[in-house]
Amino acid sequence: MSVAALDLGLRAQAAAIAAGEIDPSELLDAALTRIEQRNPALNAVVETFPERSREMLAAAPPGQLHGVPIVIKDEWPLPWRAQRFGAAELMAPTAPRESGPYRALRDAGAVIVGVGNMHELGAGSTGNTSYYGAAHNPWNTERCPGGSSSGPAASVAARLVAGAVGADGLGSVRFPAAYCGLTGLKPTFGRSAMEGHHMAPLTTLIVSGPLCADAGDCRLLGSALFGEELVAGDAAGLRIGIVRDDVSEDVTAEVGAACEAAIETLRAETGGEVREISLPDLPAAALAAIMITNSESMSGTRPEQLNRLDPELSPIARGTLKYRMLLPAAATAQALRVRAMMRRRLAAIFEEVDVIAWPTIPAPAPPLDSPLVELPSGTHTADQANVRGAALANLTGIPSISMPVGLSDERLPLALQLQAAWGENELLLDAAEALERGNERRWVESLPPLAEAEPTEA
Length: 458
Known about the structure:
Structural class: alpha/beta
Number of domains: 1
Radius of gyration: 20 Å
CATH topology: Amidase signature (AS) enzymes
Helix content: 25-40%
CATH superfamily: Amidase signature (AS) domain
Strand order of the largest sheet: 1-3-2-4-6-5-12-13-9-7-8
Largest sheet: 11 strands, mixed
Order of helices and strands: HHEHEHEHEHEEHEHHEHHHHEEEHEEH
């Protein structure tokens, strides 16, 4: 069969398999072939296991993703492969085993075709550092693909697969979605499959989440991760809250213009309204989220472990791991108070608006070799600038979604982020689909140069 079937979206692939129009075994072979062809330029997939994938397909139940190839982040163990977190060494031992996302995909009939690269230890928003080497952006392979779910996002953007599973602890689904021109959903905390993650018993921030071309595909893959259907609804009369502060204003002109246009398109398509809201202390919220994730990651760490760190770990990773031992408990306690304050504020805000909208990223994907961004306030690291708008959702547990809303002059994706009240995952998907209708799916159907390459026969 032609590998052109891989260019179909997740829903279309699943429907075609169910209708007998696509042979899933041929689709799997085509996906493996395309990974061989396109992945060398991307380093998005760090391992494939054809025989294991064929075994999954042979045993696949007739679920909503029957026979559909999926990439899963290196943050999740599989029965035949331990997770590595893109790192030379982990502080806690890992072993092959089932994980919640693996079981969710298996039970939905999906086929895990490969493991996606990720930013080392999940500790960055760029994807430029990994034990496996940097992942690359399909829009420009010299640019960052975003992190930490870098490989999953690059895999979908390059049409190696139509869907991938990432994890989001401080924006790690939304950043790569934004940099790679995809839709990425960060679910409400505790709602999506997390079992088997080494931080699952400890984290109050990390969630699994889908990365797909559009909101409908995210709805389908998210339904598998949630274990129940995310029912489509109506975003009519959507009340959109906007914040006038650094998160929305300290961005490049292209980002600002694209997001303002997208907000107006969303308002018009839903017959809604835009309201300016006040959300003080966003910088404190970002710091609190960083403090909490570092504190939670310390569990079980002993000084002697830190003195034996693998020299293949990056200097930043080694420094960060040691820095965590110096965090005062009083600072973590203060971070938890900030969380409580922000949850109260959001509860009041969501009585007045349905969603909060601001840019996912303040600037397009920076160079891999120098991940810096130039903003009105000056030069910043991408990590420093990105976390300002993303961390709030992780700190408070609310859902958030990133959607493509344009391309820069250098043809790099631009993205808008929506956040909603606790549990309103379906509303975010409804709003994202409304935006897609309003812009006639222009951006969700845009392809990077690498994905526009002429398909070959499998």
